[in-house]
Design goal:
280 residues, alpha/beta, Spermidine Synthase, Chain: A, domain 2, Rossmann fold, 5-stranded antiparallel sheet, globular, binds S-adenosylmethionine
Amino acid sequence: MTERWIHEVHRGDASFGLRVTSFVHAEVSPHQRIEIVETAALGRVLVLDGVFQTAERDERAYHELLAHPALCAARSIARVLVIGGGDGGTAREVLRHPEVERCVMVEIDRAVVEACRAHLPSIGGSAWSDPRLEVRFEDGARFVRECRERFDVVILDGSDPIGPSAGLFGRALYEDVRRLVGDDGLFALQTESPAIDLALFLEMQGALRASFERVHPYFGAVYLYAAGLFSWTVASGVTDPRAPRPARVAAIEAGCAHYDAEVHRAAFAAPPFVRRRLAR
Ligand code: SAM
């Protein structure tokens, strides 16, 4: 039988492939092409417009590192906003914190949530039935522009800056988020790979620095994303995100595969080539 593979071509210069054991779901929503495929290496994978989003066997490397540094460093985490995150993994990690009272998730594409709830249930897990979660199906950029509610932590879990996610990158959104979190709150987002997307990473850092007084990138490996070395960033007014609050870490670390207090501190140590470029 001929082997079947799925490849993500990254910016036209590199590709990453996974051997497919079965095609589980495919549809075209008003926003994007949605596929869920079963792969030999990483289990089921969500693919949007041909770009790998998240995989059963390595999603925790991404979702734990996106959510917990900000949630374990913030002064308060009672009210959390998640922008994007239609697979449910970020909301799942947020809701593991007992201090979280309300998590609003603003996802543009209802079809992504429905496909993931049906065919990737392990990622959203218990989040979907948690009474603290409110899911709104609308454009996250417009939501933050018009929102008048304050949040302690905002987490941006969008895709790459193409398609529906394009409006989730850049100063306009970052300044709206700065208003929502105020001086004390934190903003966490994925900031792409400085290994294969250094120019985009630096552009995002510059836009964040123009909108927030403190901007701290941190680093780790996500097997699914091209080039291995990946980054996230926490931006804030006055709060330093690099020191985790022990009680917050203690509340969730037993259930984590990729995050704990040591990882929290170590992740903010930038590779020297990145630190030198940021210092320019
Ligand atoms: N972990 C992935 C990554 O780092 O590339 C992102 C995962 S998540 C599936 C990305 C989500 O952002 C998708 O569900 C997509 O529909 C949603 N999204 C894209 N543009 C959006 C927008 N403007 N407002 C709200 N959600 C958006």
